[in-house]
Amino acid sequence: MLGRMTVLIAAVCAVAAMQCTSDGGKKHGTGIRNTAVPPAEARVVSAVPQTQSVSMKTEDGVILAGTLYAAKSTAPAVLCLHQWRSDRSAYAALASALQGEGFTVLTIDMRGHGGSVSRADGGKVAPDRNALPDVAAAVAFLRKHPSVDRSRIAIIGASYGASNAIRFAAGDGGVKAVVLYSPGINYFNVLPIEDAVRGFKGAVFAAASNEDVRSADAVKKIDEWTGGRATTKLFDNAGHGTDMLGAGVGLTQTTIAFLKENL
């Protein structure tokens, strides 16, 4: 009886010893086997485009808030200008998509909107339809950034942002392309664009929705003023300005294709 018990105990110990050394002599519980494979969460985070909050000062002392979506190497750059009573967040999805395609993108809150409500001296800033100083400060910021090929800069503008985009580009000489969402012939009766459109020598893309009658008319005029050189799109029931980006009409893809071709 004692002999049988001794044999059984020996067998149990042998099995236990085999289990303890079954991983090539490594002990269980060390986590060594899984360290070569990063967790799924880490892989997802590493794929998220990187952004940076930035600020810049205009020539008249307004502090502009912006978000920079920098490319990994020197790349063409795009400045995005929102519509009236909006802010730079309206371009978040488009900016990320452009960054994913290799562009550096800067979105800003124009004066009196979002985070751009203060001057360098602490004074408050009200919205102003004429935001050319804001555009100038943002373009100057891009031209100094190491991720930007300063010879390849475009501006996207929505509504009054479109007016400011083309008015600045016509007088700058270094902007290669403009994208105009829901442009107006003369927004607020203080932002006429005909002379600017006629004078701009770069590439032009203008888009609007047909029910947004004044903007649709402006797109047709832009086609006329450029002698048919502009790329134009008219949609149905797509809304106004940056709202068109979420209307399912393919505006994001069309914009990216235009910029790839012209920058």
The major pleated sheet works out as:
9 strands, mixed
Kindly report how far apart the N and C termini lie. Answer: 91 Å
Strand content: 15-25%
Query: What is the 3D form?
Result: globular
Look at the structure and give the CATH class of the largest domain. Answer: Alpha Beta
The third-level CATH topology of the largest domain is Rossmann fold
CATH architecture of the largest domain: 3-Layer(aba) Sandwich
How large, in whole angstroms, is the Cα Rg?
Answer: 28 Å
The CATH H-level homologous superfamily of the largest domain: Alpha/Beta hydrolase fold, catalytic domain
Low-pLDDT runs of 5+ residues are 1-48
N-to-C series of helices and strands:
HHEEEHEEHEHEEEHEHEH
Helix content: 25-40%
Averaging pLDDT over every residue, what do you get? 86
Q: How large is the count of helical segments?
A: 8
Q: What's the number of extended β-strand segments?
A: 11
Oligomer: single chain
Q: Can you tell me the number of structural domains?
A: 2
Structural class: alpha/beta
